[in-house]
Amino acid sequence: MPLSLQTDYALRILIYLAGRPERTQIGQVAGFYRISTHHVAKVANRLARWGYIRCVRGIGGGIELARRAEDIRVGDVVRASEGKMHLLDCVGTENICVIQRACKLRGVLARAEQIQMDYLNSVRLSDVVRPAGQLVDLLPRAARRRQPQPAG
Amino acid sequence: MPLSLQTDYALRILIYLAGRPERTQIGQVAGFYRISTHHVAKVANRLARWGYIRCVRGIGGGIELARRAEDIRVGDVVRASEGKMHLLDCVGTENICVIQRACKLRGVLARAEQIQMDYLNSVRLSDVVRPAGQLVDLLPRAARRRQPQPAG
Asked: Is B117 left (phi over 0), alpha (psi -120 to 50) or beta?
């Protein structure tokens, strides 16, 4: 039951920004994770649209968290990125299956989704990068190991 | 976070068999759900390999549950069909990510998977088709609405 690559990148971008409070260029994030700057820029734009980060243009620009890490719930990020994806199609639709009248799987799967989402929403971005110091320590070291990439 | 089509079919085949205790031809299941006989046969073979159903060849043959519906846990079926799929790759792998040392997302996602699986394993196949009578009522009616298909 894998999450999409977009969600993977969204969470990693947020973790990076939470671990490094200052404004960051997209190329730095991409270089750090060794993923495409283009993809990071695309996901960063979505994160900005969903209100999680700010994209600041121009000299000294870059991306930064738009909310405190304590105020970002992991489940909300997953839900924003994944959209209304269900374990099976029948969960989100009426009258899709011939046995729907006698089948309770739909309710079971909806509950399974909700239980997982409730747990993910009990976790804040700040919980994931804690203790914050460790991530801040990692970032400059990792950045030194590769060439800088152009900011997105 | 959708399940695969194989899991969808596996659950639907089991629900059909649990709702209709007598031996059933694969073509009947396929016709009932209006899905490909080839695909039903393929998934039925896997269900047999995992020990959930029996495939009986020859005249009077067909497929039937190999265990009581009360003894089949929904989570086990999902796990057998999905394999070791994780929400993100990092959950099932060591040393995949540059921030692993400082990132707690891996543990959070592993816990989210486990919570969902624990719930799905609290549900039995018999819970999903309950009350069993309703599904038995549906099956012959639905079968009458379409042409019979060859048994797989």
From this structure: alpha
pLDDT of residue B16: 92
> Cα separation of A23 and B16, whole Å?
56
Distance from CA of B104 to the nearest CA of A (A): 5
Q: Which of A1, A24, A111 to mutate to test the interface with B (most CBs of B within 10 A)?
A: A1
Mean pLDDT for all residues in chain B: 83
- Give the one of B3, B89, B116 whose C-beta lies nearest to A88's C-beta: B3
Residues of chain A contacting residue B124, judged by C-beta atoms under 8 Å apart:
none
Tell whether B15 lies on the interface with A, counting CB pairs under 8 A.
Answer: yes
Tell me if A32 sits within 8 A of A16, measured CB to CB: yes
**Residue length, chain A?**
152
What CA–CA distances, in Å, run from B79 to A88, B11, B76? Answer: 15, 12, 5
What is the average pLDDT across A71-83?
95
Q: Which residue of A has its CA nearest to B122?
A: A108
pTM (two decimals): 0.79
Q: Which of residues 74-133 of B touch A (CB under 8 A)?
A: 74, 82, 85-89, 97-99, 101-105, 108, 111-113, 115-116, 119-120, 123, 127-131
Question: Are A126 and A69 in contact, with CB atoms under 8 Å apart?
Answer: yes
Beta bridge partners of B55: B63
Element spanning B53, H or E = strand B53-56
pLDDT tens column, B70-125? 999 999 999 999 987 788 877 767 656 666 666 788 889 999 999 999 999 999 99
Name the nearest CA neighbour of B35 among B67, B73, B9. Answer: B9
Give me the pLDDT at residue A103, please.
74
List the 17-56 stretch of B: residues with Cβ below 8 A of A: 19, 32-34
Tens digit of each residue's pLDDT (9 = 90 or more) over A92-106: 676 566 666 667 888
What pLDDT sits at residue B20? 80
